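so my prof wants the structure for this chain in the tokens format not the other one, which i didnt know existed until like an hour ago. anyway here's the sequence
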Amino acid sequence: MAAHAIAEPNAAEPNATATASAPGAGESSADVTAQPVVPDASVNEDPQQVVAEVSPGEPAKISVAKVDEAGKLVVTTTPVIGPEQAANAVADAQQAPATVAVGVAAPVRISALPAVEATSAMDPGRWWQWALNDLR
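here's what i got, hopefully its the right format
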């Protein structure tokens, strides 16, 4: 089974709030009372499988999604180093009854937008400036 990555909820969405704390650790929350939250398969998966992509000595972040007493989805991030610490953090999170997902945090990027060359974005008239690419 593949490892799961968790992205923090978007604070710009309706009914969502986000808070930040110290660098390396974070917390976000979103109101999920409108619909029941079904736990992800990562809650029952072997912790070693969840952290399979973490290499020895590699800094990583473990994200845990839980539903708090008020019905809000809360995502916390814990910094770890190496697969052993990562697996221990995952195992601890899986034991909490409110946990709905756990995984290695990963950056999320929008890939549907076309790539834009930085110079053309900064100077829209660049294409009319002859031989500009030849100058060095």
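also thought this was worth mentioning. Residues 80 and 86 are 6 Å apart (CA to CA).
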